[in-house]
Amino acid sequence: MRLKSLFTALLLAALSCSALASDLLSVADIEKTTGLSGVQSVPKDPAKGAGGDLNFANAEKKLVAIVMIQDASMFDFWNKQYGKLGTSVSGLGSDAFQTKPGSAIPYVVFKKSGKAVWIQSMGWDKAGKANLNDEQLLGLAKLAASRL
């Protein structure tokens, strides 16, 4: 009986995280913010780089962004490991940072409403620049934060 209760609790937690993820950012949000067309959501597959709770690819099915959603305590770890490489950001929640302008792999990380959220550009365009720039990532982060 205890095993059944544990399984049920784990299933409900996974479903609630999945529901939260799908409400946080959509394909339409990515397209509107970035100007990309043909964006699609792809399933989680860390072997292919799609390690986020949300993973977005372009029309050629190449990853352009991932979003990770964790318990707020994960923010402290991310901040300790990566915060020193970035700059502080305000207006996203109780704490936030992003990579320095022009970073090869830009990301924005914030903590709000008991969640830690990491939004990262994946891959590069034909000119060798990150698929999503700092301004686009910040726009997506503000949108996601408004939905938490």
Descriptive report:
The protein starts with a helix and ends with a helix. The model is unreliable at 5-19 (pLDDT under 50). By secondary structure, it is of the alpha+beta class. It has helices at 2-24, 27-34, 73-82, 134-146; strands at 40-41, 54-57, 63-71, 86-88, 95-99, 107-112, 115-121. Helix 2 (27-34) packs antiparallel against helix 4 (134-146).
Secondary structure elements and pairings:
Blueprint: H1 2-24, H2 27-34, E1 40-41, E2 54-57, E3 63-71, H3 73-82, E4 86-88, E5 95-99, E6 107-112, E7 115-121, H4 134-146
Antiparallel strand pairs: 1-2, 2-3, 3-7, 4-5, 5-6, 6-7
Instruction: Label the overall shape.
Output: globular
Write the element-wise H/E pattern from the N-terminal end onward.
HHEEEHEEEEH
Mean pLDDT: 87
Strand order in the largest sheet: 1-2-3-7-6-5-4
User: What ranges have pLDDT less than 50 throughout 5 or more consecutive residues?
Assistant: 5-19
Helix content: 25-40%
Major sheet summary line: 7 strands, antiparallel
Q: Which band does the percent of strand residues land in?
A: 15-25%
Q: End-to-end distance, in Å?
A: 34 Å
Total helices: the number is 4
How many β-strand stretches? Answer: 7
| Classification by helices and strands | alpha+beta
Radius of gyration: 16 Å
Assembly category = single chain
